[in-house]
Amino acid sequence: MNPATPRVAIAPPRGKLGVLTPGLGAVATTFMAGVESIRRGRSKPIGSLTQMATIRLGKRTEKRSPLIKEFVPLAGLDDLVFGAWDPIPDDALTAARKAGVLDARDLDPLADFLSAIKPMPAVFDNHYVTRINGSNVKSGKTKRDLAEQLRQDMREFKQAHGLDRLVVVWCASTEVFISAGPQHATIEAFEAAMDANDEAIAPSMLYAWAAIMEGVPFANGAPNLTVDMPALVQLATEKGVPISGKDFKTGQTWMKTVIAPGLKARMLGLRGWYSTNILGNRDGEVLDDPASFKTKEASKLSVLHTILQPDIYPDLYKEFSHVVRINYYPPRGDNKEGWDSIDIVGWMDYPMQIKVNFLCRDSILAAPLVLDLALFSDFAHRAGMKGIQEWLSFYYKSPMVAAGLQPEHDLFIQQTKLKNTLRHLMGEEQITHLGLEYYP
Fold first, then answer.
1. Does residue 241 sit in the same domain as residue 156?
2. Do β-strands 387-388 and 242-245 pair in parallel, antiparallel, or remain unpaired?
3. 94 and 183 part of one domain
4. Are residues 244 and 256 in the same domain?
5. Which site among 19, 157, 163, 354 is 20 to 30 Å from 253 CA-CA?
6. Which tens digits make up the pLDDT trace of 25-40?
7. Alpha-helical runs (H) found in 274-334
8. β-sheet bridge partners, residue 64
């Protein structure tokens, strides 16, 4: 069967795509090393939907299930070029060795590639991330000046490497908690606050503003208030730039978005969900600061209420207890361990429990998300999509949505939305799983 005609004009992925990451720590170096390992035939892209997942097209009887990367015109892995900003001047090889995620047997064969990736000076301020110090930092009279330096970095990186396009994926640490205020309400107020060096304008916001102004898609992998504010949403829409976020959905929260929909699907009650984590990498050290943890806590706590809808199902989910703890434990490194104790209720109010002990590797789970978000964000831009990309909610703990809407947290609904968006853009029918063969 001939392929369908795309419903929108999608520019082909010609030339090279630059992937820039604010942050060259555990997540970014694991992502970069993994892509290069795949390109050299040393490993497989496990965990990446863009590389390994299929997508069903048409009726089941047609038996059409191509790989997503064969169905959608995505940039190829051989066309990716990596760059980063980081307050610590270590090259990607040194940073990866310090992060301790990947073994020497995997890093040593890639030493030539990784050592050539050196971070550009970062926009960084200890007021927003208190547990990190570094010398590779930009200086400027105003925050707008710093943001303009980031714009220049993007132009120079693109020119130096002969790139056709760029995407930016935030892989840096969690900043302190900031609530949206009048400084974030309009573009004019935001830019005036940059000029005034207002504390409400965090470094991550400068990266987002700079990327949007340069016409570069921006994906936020941390729970910071970065791009999810009226000013930058408006700017992205006006500039025709895709944006998405926030906070990569990797370990414990990913499990919640799998288990909670199962409880709700069976109409089983929930009385409490206690979650605790130990983590010893740079992210764990940053989250040991109460102000930074508050940012992460807000992201992690939002999931269950949205999935379970206690306002609609008060008999099952009204006033359940939800507690989240993160403890910095250096010996564990990047190998995060999460415990969940879940108190559920069944028939005739009889209590039951679910216990989950997830020994995960945080950056190993995050790296393929960075790849997918980079490729899908670039695809969205070439397809003329702009502003919030809600179809990418699958990848985030706190998905961005249009004003007045609640985010969808159910992983399986998110997956359906992602694949149906691809089907729609490529001119295929959306899959509803509604079989009409039994009706006259």
1. yes
2. parallel
3. yes
4. no
5. 19
6. 999 999 999 999 999 9
7. 282-287, 290-308, 314-317
8. 57
Q: How far apart are CA 292 and CA 178, in angstroms?
A: 10
Whether residue 120 is found in the same domain as residue 259 = no
Q: Is the pLDDT of residue 90 over 80?
A: yes
Kindly report the number of other CB atoms within 10 A of residue 122's CB atom.
25
CB 226 within 8 A of CB 244: no
Cβ–Cβ < 8 Å for 354, 375: no
**Residue 122 CA to chain centroid, in angstroms?**
20
Q: Between 151 and 297, where is the model more confident?
A: 151
Beta carbons within 8 Å of 279's beta carbon, 6+ residues apart: 287, 326, 327, 328, 329, 332, 334, 336, 337, 362
Q: What is the pLDDT of residues 57-74, one digit of tens each?
A: 999 899 999 999 999 999
3-state secondary structure of 42: coil
Is the preceding omega at residue 246 within 30 degrees of 0, hence cis? yes
pLDDT digits (tens, 9 = 90+) for 242-265: 999 999 998 889 999 999 999 999
Number of domains in the chain: 2
**Residue 271: which residues within 8 A CB-CB, separation 6 or more?**
320, 321, 343, 344, 345, 351
- What's the pTM value of the predicted model, to 2 decimals? 0.92
> pLDDT value at position 289?
63
- What mean pLDDT comes out for the span 397-403? 92
In sequence order, what are the beta bridge partners of 352? 344
Q: How many CB atoms lie within 10 A of CB 164?
A: 15
Residues 278/339, Cβ–Cβ less than 8 Å: no
Alpha carbon separation from 218 to 15, 22, 25, 153, 410 (Å, rounded):
20, 11, 18, 15, 23
Q: What does the pLDDT look like over 404-438, one tens digit per residue?
A: 888 999 999 999 999 999 999 999 999 886 655 54
Could you give the CA distance from residue 83 to residue 134 in angstroms, rounded to a whole number?
A: 18
Given a contact cutoff of 8 angstroms between Cβ atoms, the answer to whether 134 and 126 are in contact is: no
- Shared domain check, 138 and 41: yes
Torsion angle (degrees, nearest 10) of CA 424, 216, 284, 294: -80
CA 306 to CA 174: how far, in whole Å?
A: 23
Q: Check: CB of residue 221 under 8 Å from CB of residue 252.
A: no
- Can you give the length of the chain in residues? 440
Rounded Cα distance between 117 and 132, Å, is: 21
pLDDT at res. 439: 46
324: domain CATH number? 3.30.360.10
Tokens 């301790």 -> residue: 100
Q: How far is CA 1 from CA 58, 63, 124, 424, in A?
A: 11, 11, 53, 18
Range of the domain at 298: 252-359
Amino acid at 420: N
